[in-house]
Amino acid sequence: MTEQRARGRGKGGAAASAPARRASDRGRYGRLNRERVLASALALVDQEGLSALSMRRLGTELGVEAMALYRYASSKDALLDGLVEALYLELEERLAADGDEDTDWRAGLHRIARATYAVCLAHPQAVPLLATRLLAVPLARRPAAVLRDHERVLAILRGAGFDEATTADVFRAFTAWLLGYVSVELRPVVDNPDETEPAFRLGLHRLSAKELPTLRETAAALVEQGGLQGLAAGLDALLDGFTNGSASAASG
């Protein structure tokens, strides 16, 4: 009896000292990897929005414990940065699949703008991250795919003959126009999509006719998206400001 109790204590002590078992990373879709985790996170955001994304919810979607995901994203912020990375990786895929050849530097910027616009329209729920996360993450710590995008645009501008200072100016203006245009395109305008009468559909009864007369008059036009045509027209106007000014030497 004494020996049995001793053996029992020995077994219990061995179990207590054994290393904790790792949360399994084999889910309903097989063993996890970073690409699968980010793809599932992006799909969840596409379907339900950023507010639905959490480690626990993503783990449920993948069929694993939430703790298993920390091997691929060390925190919620790291997961959000991973979504930004996924968007820019998709941008690279679209650019690689685009058979158009850039005839000059402006054509190259237009091609990047079109591909970025397409990615954003495919994942509108994730677009806010292009502002919030890039505002929070220093340049050198941004995902590699984001840095490659920066390099791509800067190389086009330097190859066109712009000096460093003008290259930086055009880069900032190009980025601001592109992300700003997409953000405006995706902002909701319709107040009640089930309403058939235009004024009530837009919620114009909520806007003061005395204080906001021009906005009320223009609201119907604001519903329409500018699309690729508006993107291209605005980008050309922006670039004209550089090529017709101090950077005119690089206009060829």
UniProtKB/TrEMBL annotation:
<dbReference type="Pfam" id="PF00440">
    <property type="entry name" value="TetR_N"/>
</dbReference>
<keyword id="KW-0805">Transcription regulation</keyword>
<dbReference type="InterPro" id="IPR009057">
    <property type="entry name" value="Homeodomain-like_sf"/>
</dbReference>
<dbReference type="InterPro" id="IPR036271">
    <property type="entry name" value="Tet_transcr_reg_TetR-rel_C_sf"/>
</dbReference>
<protein>
    <submittedName>
        <fullName>TetR/AcrR family transcriptional regulator C-terminal domain-containing protein</fullName>
    </submittedName>
</protein>
<keyword id="KW-0804">Transcription</keyword>
<feature type="domain" description="HTH tetR-type">
    <location>
        <begin position="31"/>
        <end position="91"/>
    </location>
</feature>
<keyword id="KW-0238">DNA-binding</keyword>
<feature type="region of interest" description="Disordered">
    <location>
        <begin position="1"/>
        <end position="26"/>
    </location>
</feature>
<dbReference type="InterPro" id="IPR001647">
    <property type="entry name" value="HTH_TetR"/>
</dbReference>
<dbReference type="InterPro" id="IPR050109">
    <property type="entry name" value="HTH-type_TetR-like_transc_reg"/>
</dbReference>
<dbReference type="Pfam" id="PF02909">
    <property type="entry name" value="TetR_C_1"/>
</dbReference>
<dbReference type="InterPro" id="IPR004111">
    <property type="entry name" value="Repressor_TetR_C"/>
</dbReference>
<feature type="DNA-binding region" description="H-T-H motif">
    <location>
        <begin position="54"/>
        <end position="73"/>
    </location>
</feature>
